[in-house]
Amino acid sequence: MYRCQICNVVAPPGTPAERVVIETRAAEYPSRPKAQHHRVGRKMKYADDPGGAGYEIAKEAVACPACAAEHRAKAAAAEAAEFGA
Ligand SMILES: [Zn+2]
């Protein structure tokens, strides 16, 4: 039992909850030289963390299956509109 954070209705017991991504943000992490260390025999070995860039979740909501499906369809349409044209 949980309250759907999109339609605000309490879901009946046994209903699976789905987490939907409401908002993402661009993120960039710099590389960190010699951040990873592990032992090989008696010696420590150091490896670089390559860092990276992409999108990370900024806001997430617990939703009932109906709202989650609707949100997925909307997100797919928005993405198609953004990259399709
Ligand atoms: Zn809902």
Provide a descriptive summary of the structure in words:
The protein has one helix and six strands; from the N terminus they run ββββββα. It has one domain (18-84). The mean pLDDT is 93. The protein has one helix at 65-84; strands at 2-3, 10-11, 18-29, 32-40, 43-49, 52-63. With 85 residues, the chain is α+β, with helices and mostly antiparallel strands. Strands 1-2 form a two-stranded antiparallel ribbon. It is 24% helix and 52% strand. The radius of gyration is 21 Å and the shape is elongated. The structure holds zinc ion. Zinc ion binds at residues 4, 6-7, 9, 63-64, 66-67.
* Main β-sheet, spatial strand arrangement: 1-2
What is the beta-strand fraction? over 45%
Mean pLDDT: 93
Helical residue percent band:
10-25%
Count of all domains = 1
Give the bound compounds: zinc ion
Structural class: alpha+beta
- How many helices does DSSP assign? 1
The SSE order reads EEEEEEH
Rg value:
21 Å
Based on DSSP secondary structure assignment, what is the total number of beta strands?
A: 6
The coarse overall form would be elongated
